[in-house]
Amino acid sequence: MTAASLNVKPAYLEISNVWKAFGDFHALKDISLDIREGEFVCFLGPSGCGKTTLLRAIAGLDLQTRGTIRQGGKDVSTLPPSQRDYGIVFQSYALFPNLTISKNIAFGLENTKRPRAEIEARVTELLKLVGLPEQGNKYPAQLSGGQQQRIALARAIAISPGLLLLDEPLSALDAKVRTHLRHEIKELQRKLGVTTIMVTHDQEEALSMADRIVVMNHGVIEQIGSPTEIYRHPATLFVADFIGEANKFKATAEKGSVSFGSKTFKCAAHSFDAGVSVIVAIRPEDVIPHGPGARSPGAPDVVKEPANLLDVTIGEMEFLGSFWRTRLRGADLGDETLIADFSINAARRLTLTEGTALTVELPEERLLVYPGGQ
Ligand code: ATP
């Protein structure tokens, strides 16, 4: 089947078997990845995982040691940045302090030898596009951080590049501005349809902005997927742990189930042989509270006869605005604590407070099973 018959756009950027060594250290280890035209992809991972190195290889700012990079069907692997087709925004705005905002935006356009009137019209259009139509005659120092980053964005897209590269563009900004700009950048990217790669270590940023997230760790790709795939079906324990919260328990695989603490829990298909040590993870919001004595099918939360029930007592409760984070303990958990997030409504309905004894369900389809455990 071809890409066209699947109604999927062909790859615009093809990264094949890319390695990057700094001396003996391999910052990238055999990275392969296709990015489709118009996609918004985030490289997400902890500090030092190689995301900036990969972005710089794509930009030609630092060549890969091995492997190829093709953009729009053309091999750009060894081309200098000036011969590649992209715009880039860095964390530190990197505007020219001695040039006006208009001149900053016009910078790349000047080299294209377009008529002055056309350049001016384009700058006016870009200033409007990033919501700063009146600021053209100011200097960078006269703008706020968020405004400067909008200008850096305008400058990056001025020549309508095929690829937009964003290197932690929001991390120098305060939380409110960051959330606002997140939304604006995403909207702008959709409007322009420009293929975009953003490097970030902020999971919320990646989850809220990306069409697909590339999760990296120690120079390799751990998982590539949509935000919901990555969150709901983390391929590795690292991904489950790095994105969102996860309870983790050492467990033993059984046929169609896992046992940990002193209980056995049914669990959606896992591929481990019986007796193998595994790690079982569950997200705090996936723990369902059934309240004391609520084991009967008629109980408020019970849709089907629940399995995987656990009797627990609430240790501590922490109010986090839109939900309660609770620490649950119980005889079947041994020394372990189960963290569970309960909605405000559930907590009110079940009159949950510290010390309350209740029954919780660990839904079988929400139990994630990974290798390890010894
Ligand atoms: P951060 O979020 O902290 O920027 P990152 O995921 O972008 O992290 P990179 O900057 O890509 O990480 O670095 C990956 C690894 O390569 C790190 O261990 C870093 O120390 C190393 N590294 C990067 N640049 C160089 C260099 N010029 N010389 C030697 N080592 C380098």
UniProtKB/TrEMBL annotation:
SMART domains hit by this protein: AAA (SM00382)
Record SUPFAM superfamilies: MOP-like, P-loop containing nucleoside triphosphate hydrolases
Protein origin, superkingdom: Bacteria
A Gene Ontology cellular-component term: ATP-binding cassette (ABC) transporter complex
Molecular function per GO: ATP binding; ATP hydrolysis activity; transmembrane transporter activity
GO biological process: quaternary ammonium group transport
PROSITE patterns on file: ABC_TRANSPORTER_1, ABC_TRANSPORTER_2
UniProt domain ABC transporter: residue ranges: 13-243
Keyword list, A-Z: ATP-binding, Cell inner membrane, Cell membrane, Membrane, Nucleotide-binding, Translocase, Transport
Family: Belongs to the ABC transporter superfamily.
Name recorded for this polypeptide: 2-aminoethylphosphonate ABC transporter ATP-binding protein
Species of origin: Aminobacter anthyllidis
